[in-house]
Design brief:
heterodimer; A: 10 strands; B: mainly alpha
Chain lengths: 255, 206
């Protein structure tokens, strides 16, 4: 009874999740629940396992033990639950550090591809939706260009629009601004800020601490594959409880 | 008389290359499969036909195979088969390399937007891979076209064979072989131009 209620009010539920990479224990007993509308920011040093953590949620990484329920679908260890995986991917959008736009397709086609092939939307409806999304991320006039003709910031905004086109319940951001020139970071963060305001559930891996403090409902600090500390941004940033969190923040907030 | 060998050269080349590429789609993609049951036969096929001389393969198909089957086989069909299995092995490696050259992020982006593995491959990976493969495919086509000259040894009346027959009655080796060479060059140059055009036309990989 309690469990059923819990499931209705959580989008992601991870219990005692473990992942090994050979002898490396990349994720160690991770417990994480994310509620609808929540914005969770994951911080930590490179190689801490934070990207791996969110990549488990849509099955881009397999895990070896533990429980993972996303949108009511249970993912099995070793990527065994193909059907659940497919169902989850239709509901979960992802934005990558390297954008990963399809270079052989125009901007608008990058966005319409999945809705047309997965949701069987007809061409006109898909294009109309794509155009609306492009307008929303402020690049409505770039629809017929190829990704390579766009700046990094514009490409990442196309990638966000592409993910939104599937009308996801959850958006995963894997260091979305880490590959961008400094002057383009702001425009991407603006789009993400707007999404958060609109009530999108988001899990964001980022090094943008100012953005995390401003947008996050909850900040999670990951180190060596473990969740070391989590809480409201003000608590984690201003009064970290754990020594490792303190030393990490001291390093990243100094400059 | 010399020119009468041209259609046969073209026909064997064309048939062999088309079937060879079809074989490559099968074996090249099989060689990328994660399971051994699919991968090993493909690897065996590729290694055998890449690792033995074309002439030996030709002789085997022309003289060995009929003995094995207990009945003669059509010479032109045998020629096409020889080009097909040989070019197929090389094409397979080109297909494998082309597909592997596409960044893993492309597949991840496709899968995470809800496309199936097959859709991701067909709409995203393959068009990009195919485009990258064009120069290497063109190379192998040229090699295969030239390999058809080996069929002169087994008596198929292609360009070289016709040339030798002509020389036998007219004693003009220099002119005839020059002519034969020019004809091959005409075929391969047209192919090069066609492929270069194809690469930049946007017809492939769009």
């Amino acid at each position: 009874m309690i469990d059923a209620n819990a499931r209705a009010t959580t989008i992601v539920e991870m219990r005692q999740l473990n992942k090994h990479f050979g002898s490396l224990h990349v994720l160690q007993n991770i417990d994480l629940t994310v509620a609808p509308g929540e914005v969770v920011v994951v911080i930590g040093a490179s190689g801490s396992g934070k990207s791996t953590l969110i990549r488990c949620i849509n099955g881009l990484e397999e895990f070896q033990s533990g429980e993972l329920i996303v949108e009511g679908q249970t993912l099995q260890p070793y990527g065994k639950s193909k059907r659940a995986l497919r169902a989850i991917r239709k509901e979960v959008g992802m934005v990558f550090q390297q954008f990963n736009l399809f270079p052989h397709r125009k901007v608008i086609e990058n966005i319409t591809l999945a809705p047309r092939k997965v949701k069987r939307k007809d061409k006109a409806a898909a294009r109309e939706q794509a155009q609306t999304l492009l307008d929303r991320v402020d690049i409505g006039n770039q629809a017929d260009k190829y990704p390579s003709q766009l700046s990094g910031g514009q490409q990442q905004r196309v990638a966000i629009a592409r993910a939104l086109a599937m009308e996801p319940q959850l958006m995963l951001f894997d260091e979305p601004t880490s590959a961008l020139d400094p002057e383009m970071i702001g425009e991407v963060l603006d789009v993400m800020r707007e999404l958060a305001r609109a009530g999108m559930t988001m899990i964001i891996v980022t090094h943008e601490m100012g953005f995390a403090r401003e947008v996050a409902d909850r900040v999670i600090y990951v180190d060596k594959g473990q969740i070391i500390e989590q809480g409201k941004p003000a608590d984690v940033f201003d009064a970290p409880q754990n020594e490792r969190t303190r030393s990490f923040l001291a390093r990243v907030l100094k400059h | 008389m010399l020119l009468s060998g041209l259609p046969l050269t073209l026909w064997i080349s064309f048939g062999g290359i088309v079937i060879g590429f079809t074989l490559a789609l099968i074996f090249g993609l099989m060689s990328l499969a994660p399971t051994r049951i699919l991968k090993w036969p493909a690897v065996a096929y590729i290694e055998v036909f890449r690792g033995t001389p074309v002439l030996v393969q030709v002789l085997f198909i022309f003289y060995g195979l009929p003995q094995l089957l207990g009945q003669p086989i059509n010479a032109i069909a045998a020629g096409i088969a020889a080009i097909a299995v040989n070019s197929g092995a090389y094409f397979s490696e080109i297909v494998r390399g082309g597909v592997q050259s596409i960044d893993r992020g492309q597949t991840e982006a496709g899968l995470s937007s809800g496309l199936s593995s097959a859709q991701t491959f067909y709409y995203i990976v393959w068009p990009q891979a195919l485009r990258r493969m064009i120069p290497a495919l063109g190379n192998q086509c040229i090699v295969s076209i030239k390999d058809t000259s080996l069929f002169a040894v087994v008596g198929i009346g292609e360009l070289v064979r016709q040339g030798r027959l002509y020389i036998a009655s007219h004693f003009t080796a220099m002119e005839v072989y020059l002519m034969v060479a020019v004809l091959y060059l005409c075929i391969t140059l047209s192919l090069s131009l066609l492929l270069r055009w194809l690469e930049h036309s946007g017809l492939v990989g769009e």
